[in-house]
Amino acid sequence: MQVRLSPAVARAVLGVSPAELDGAVVALDDLWGREASRIREQLGDASSWEDRFALTDALLARRREAGSPVDPEVAWAWDRIVVSRGLVRVDELAAELGWSRKRLWSRFRSQIGLPPKRAVKLVRFDHAAHRLVAGQDAARVAADSGYADQSHLHRDVVAFTGVTPATVAGEPFLAVDDIAWTSQEAPAKTHASGVLRR
To answer: Residue 113: which of 86, 83, 74 has the closest Cα?
Structure first.
């Protein structure tokens, strides 16, 4: 099962700030200890995918409730980035919050795990990648997604994935996940493929 967490809830669910992980791949056992083993057993004992999804959804909701939420301003900034599909400027976010760019960068980085400018690029890339998978023309995707031109889109695709846009367009996991970042308040959505999004 794959679970994709919004960065706005990742700290609460994981029990550690994404900034502390610094992009490292960490085993769930290292984060949750024995609880990870119990979850693995429960998922293995479940008789259907629906039961596995229900178990996972309940676990995520419980951990989110018990965990430390991000600051409301940081959650608002993340949601604004997502709603704009990565087309908002960081200085606009800071101005709307009444914060300096430095304050926004510091709080956002410490709670979300990446600087706001990188988050903007990531969300813009994600939106563009999903449009490529949907079969849209790369030049049109680049223009509509706020890239200066197709070569800038190509550069971001290679930087984020290590492969070309044509390769990304054929990635099957993107075809079942219409968007990566839902609003932090949205309920989990499950798919028959075994992908659970929150």
So the answer is: 74
